[in-house]
Write a structure and sequence with these properties.
This protein has 10 helices and 10 strands. It is α+β, with helices and mostly antiparallel strands and 292 residues long.
């Protein structure tokens, strides 16, 4: 995960990661981040001239209409129009990533949608296929308008869904709430395309191959991935970190051992400030013991 506190550094890092992972190449790719009314965007020819080894000082800062605040307007990425159009039409978007991911581009070169087959794709991007916009001049206003139209259609089908599309023979655009999100959508979508291509190469002519999805998970199903879960069966006996024999609690996710219920009742009666004081004293005692 990229630390977005330093926006300029995050753009440099994500750009290099994308270049190293074949999610873009020396011929293009661009990244921007919105912070309030400011847009941070990489300079043009970051791949061709620097192989994405750009410095923080090279990242340009503008307002929402590309009026420069830091840097020269003529040095802003050539794909800037699409970035600004996306920000102007989607207030929830705080980062846009344009790349040339190899496997997604293979689908774009055939004017084919990318179906969401992997669980990662369905969990992160959703069940909608990733579609292509019409062929347009790269970096043009027509491209910007076509991508905004594509993204709006995705949101009509599923409000609030992640935004990603393919551009035939060119590359991809992804937009999200953070630079980490926009990068994730790009990489997950490319991995999905990779799986589809490899699957066809390896098993396309095998009559035994079953390409169907046996279970369609819902968004609610995928949300449970983030829920903390018990990792032991209630009643599981083990030796804890302090060398005591313990028994995993019955369904509550708590641990029960000798005197644990009495301890729990005592702890429940302690005020927060007392609890913090106890923790501080125990921590100091442990550190003093370690120093001896």
């Amino acid at each position: 995960m990229v630390d977005i506190k330093n926006i300029r550094a995050s753009i440099c890092k994500i750009g290099k990661i994308m270049y190293d992972r074949d999610l873009t190449d020396a011929s293009g790719g661009n990244i921007s981040v919105r912070d309030g009314n400011l847009i941070y965007i990489n300079p043009r020819r970051a791949g061709h001239d620097f192989q994405w080894e750009i410095s923080e000082d090279q990242v340009i800062v503008t307002d929402l209409c590309k009026v420069p605040i830091v840097g020269e307007v003529d040095m802003i990425s050539r794909e800037a129009a699409t970035h600004y159009y996306i920000y102007q039409n989607f207030p929830d978007v705080n980062s846009v990533v344009h790349g040339h991911p190899f496997f997604m581009m293979a689908f774009g070169a055939a004017h084919m949608d990318i179906p969401a087959v992997s669980e990662g794709t369905r969990a992160v991007i959703g069940s909608q296929p990733i579609t292509n916009i019409p062929e347009v001049v790269p970096g043009s206003i027509e491209q910007a308008e076509a991508i905004v139209k594509n993204f709006k259609k995705r949101r009509e089908i599923e409000p609030g869904c992640p935004l990603v599309c393919n551009i035939p023979f060119h590359g991809t655009f992804a937009a999200g709430g953070s630079i980490n999100d926009a990068f994730l959508y790009t990489e997950v979508a490319n991995n999905c395309a990779k799986i589809l291509i490899y699957r066809q190469i390896m098993f396309g002519n095998d009559p035994k191959a079953d390409f169907s999805i046996h279970k369609q998970f819902t968004k609610e199903d995928f949300r449970t991935i983030d829920v903390s879960k018990d990792v032991c069966t209630p009643g599981y006996v083990y030796t804890d970190a302090f060398g005591k024999q313990s028994v995993y609690g019955s369904g509550s996710g708590s641990l029960s051992s000798s005197g644990s219920s009495e301890c729990a009742s005592v702890i429940s009666g302690i005020k927060p400030e007392q609890y913090r004081e106890i923790i501080q004293r125990v921590t100091e005692a442990v550190l003093n013991q370690i120093k001896k």
